[in-house]
Write a structure and sequence with these properties.
The chain is of the alpha/beta class. It has three helices and six strands. The chain has a single domain (2-118), classed as Dinitrogenase iron-molybdenum cofactor biosynthesis domain (Nucleotidyltransferase, domain 5, 2-Layer Sandwich). It has helices at residues 57-64, 77-86, 99-107; strands spanning 2-9, 28-35, 38-46, 69-72, 89-92, 112-113.
Length: 126
């Protein structure tokens, strides 16, 4: 069974791209398909403008593109609740300098899942 993971990225995306600091304002997402503990495919997905739907626009965008997991450096309560509602699991990958480093940490089970207790404050989002 495969898992689609979205990682906020700076242009041009891919494993060597720097990890995007703000998931809602990143240039794009690198979407990695992981199967049996290894990377099966890598593609990029353009981000949506943040003003269209506020911090919930990326939630809907990623959900519509089949993403099951998001790796993020920080997140507010409102978008986390949005991801929870659409079934996307969110993991904290704050120490990862590149998309590839974040993906590898996830594959190795080294990342913690976000909860409402460890969001970046009340409602604003990233």
């Amino acid at each position: 069974m495969s898992t689609l993971i979205a990682i906020p990225s700076t242009h041009p995306g891919g494993l060597e791209a720097p990890f995007g600091a703000h998931f809602g304002h990143c240039d794009l997402y690198t979407v990695i398909e992981v199967e049996d503990g290894s990377i099966k495919s890598i593609k990029t997905l353009p981000n949506v403008p943040h003003q269209q739907g506020g911090c919930l626009a990326p939630v809907q965008h990623l959900q519509q593109n089949g993403v099951q997991v998001l790796l993020a450096q920080g997140m507010g309560f409102r978008p986390l609740m949005g991801f929870n509602q659409v079934g996307i699991q969110v993991y904290y990958a704050g120490g990862a300098p590149t998309v590839g480093d974040a993906a590898q940490a996830f594959i190795e089970g080294k990342l913690q899942q976000f909860s409402t207790e460890n969001t970046c404050g009340g409602g604003g989002g990233q």
